[in-house]
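Entry: Cyclic di-GMP phosphodiesterase Gmr
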Amino acid sequence: SAKRHGRNVSQRFRPALDVQDTPQMALVYSLRDALANGGQLELYYQSQHRTSDGLVVGLEALLRWRHPEHGLVSPGDFIPLAERHGLMGMLGNWVIDEALGQMARWQEMGMPKLPVWINISAIQMFQGELESALSSGLARHGIAAGQLGLELTESVLLDERAGDIVPRLEALRERGHRIAIDDFGTGYSSLGYLKRLPLDKIKLDRAFIRSLPDDPADAAIVSAVLAMARGLSLDVIAEGVETQGQLDFLRDAGCRLVQGFYFARPMAVGALAEHWQSLAGQSSTVQLGTTPVV
Ligand code: C2E
Ligand code: MG
Ligand code: MG
Ligand code: MG
């Protein structure tokens, strides 16, 4: 619509008007350069593990920006900036293409075919470019949609600007993508949408994991989410698992999948390759999945 178009245009030109916010604007300009010139952006990958035996069953792609002066800038700092200043569409497309390109390189190297999950911003949903960016990327790199999962937060799923999201999610799933709801439990909405939306997986936010197993309230919440997800036939992965105690609690409570520093930090591609080699060489309890289980 004209109104929506108008909003996008004013966002795109906000940099020039926001004179009092100089350090932030400098960052916006250098992010724009990074997108145009390449080289500074990178995807890190964090492994996802089965609680029963530690098997690696997937990877989450996490965006990193190596700024020439500031060093590694956290996505929590530059993604909101990109969203506010009209760069998120381009950035999101870069992530899609980079993840798929990396998956193709891993396949050429004969690495196990692990599903990769990418994070999708609200802007990508309501700008409506997501579907075409995905399909052209999959075709260009020769990757099956079933290998690329999409993580969306509650606020993305419920953002009215995205229009009726149910048919869009259905179409994405029909192509083969799996859909996860990220940071589950941190939103403000009712649980009714879980029944309405076609989803595959809940990512339980690390806020509920942090104080496990000692905090009885978090233990109750986690157990209740697991029971609810079972009833809804949704898979659950717990984020931010850092300790053996957390892992043991989750496994005993019936949580099949975890992700967190306990098993591995997000890693650059080179470090991940070394990590895989050392896993394959020395461990019988932590292995790579050769078939996607998630
Ligand atoms: P997220 O998708 O919930 O990703 C999980 C975050 O938790 C990551 O932070 C990861 O490094 C961190 N993490 C993983 N395991 C642990 C743990 O055991 N303990 C602790 N304390 N933290 C852990 P990161 O990489 O800084 O990303 C932050 C957020 O930025 C992500 O949260 C996601 O919302 C967003 N993000 C990252 N990459 C992208 C992207 O490519 N596109 C979009 N739209 N958003 C992204
Ligand atoms: Mg995520
Ligand atoms: Mg998350
Ligand atoms: Mg989170």
